[in-house]
Design goal:
The chain is of the alpha/beta class. It has six helices and twelve strands.
């Protein structure tokens, strides 16, 4: 398997940049071949998520970009598309999600890679994007297989040694994976994203019982938002599991969090 390892898709997430810099210089021998890519150097120089548009929304048939990111996405596509079997994109989040991997593909190689990392890191959470199995605008769409690593919490533009070392561990474990191992998918827990929850109109904050508690079930009647008067907005509907809670980058879109269903890999694959 030939793997493209991408760091710095968002310029204010230096963890992946540190890892790709190190791997680019180290050149160890792994079962799989690889090449590292520093995706968005200009945004990193500015300490910003992006210069003109989100680079992680610039790929595939539904991708949109402008300015610098339009140029950079074209450059990356020329280097990666058709030359690599697998894309591993390294991210961090300000949300309290711990180590996670996000599946945007549902092919065997991608799913097995997620299972392998979960087996080696029991605390890791597998997230399946609501777009998985279809066209999506993320960097992973540049190959037929891929994973996004998303680890937090860490503030933007901060290098946190614990997360850099853990990200490096995940990357090297994948580089040494033979992609032939199989699992009983019904035994592998995952969270399948369903949508986003926007902030209500007015001066509302994510409730303390939700904020910082990614992947904790919220049931009907549980508080979601609170204001300075102590007034509450509670959840109505089926149980859900919030994630990316209060992610700093999502504030520009008025997104309080994403939400998911808790399920298993086999159930998702059966519905795909």
């Amino acid at each position: 398997m030939n793997i493209a390892i991408i760091g710095g898709t968002h310029g204010n997430e230096p963890t992946g940049i540190e890892v790709v810099k190190f791997l680019g210089n180290e050149n160890p021998q792994f079962k799989n071949s690889y090449k590292t890519f520093f995706a968005n150097p200009e945004a990193h120089k500015l300490g910003k998520r992006y210069v003109d548009s989100d680079l992680n929304r610039a790929f595939g048939k539904t991708g949109q970009s402008k300015g610098y990111e339009s140029t950079r996405s074209s450059e990356l596509e020329k280097e990666i598309v058709g030359n690599f079997d697998f894309v591993l994109d390294l991210h961090t989040t300000t949300s309290n999600m711990g180590p996670t991997v996000i599946l945007t593909h549902l092919d065997e190689a991608s799913v097995r890679a997620a299972c392998w990392l979960k087996e080696n890191n029991p605390e890791l959470v597998i997230i399946i994007s609501s777009r998985a199995g279809g066209d999506c605008p993320y960097t992973t769409s540049m190959a037929s297989s891929g994973l996004t690593v998303e680890i937090g919490p860490v503030a933007n533009n901060v290098v946190k040694a614990e997360l850099v070392l853990l990200t490096h561990k995940l990357v090297t474990e994948l580089l040494d994976f033979n992609f032939q191992k199989t699992w009983e998918m019904k035994n592998i827990e995952c969270f399948h994203t369903q949508g986003i929850m926007s902030y209500p109109e007015g001066e509302w904050m994510v409730h303390p019982e939700v904020d910082g508690h990614d992947f904790l079930q919220v049931r009907e009647g549980d508080p979601l938002f609170i204001n300075m008067k102590g007034e509450l907005i509670t959840h109505k509907g089926d149980p859900m599991y919030p994630l990316f809670i209060n992610e700093a980058a999502y504030q520009e879109n008025n997104t309080a969090f994403e939400y998911a269903l808790k399920t298993n890999l086999q159930a998702v694959l059966d519905r795909a």
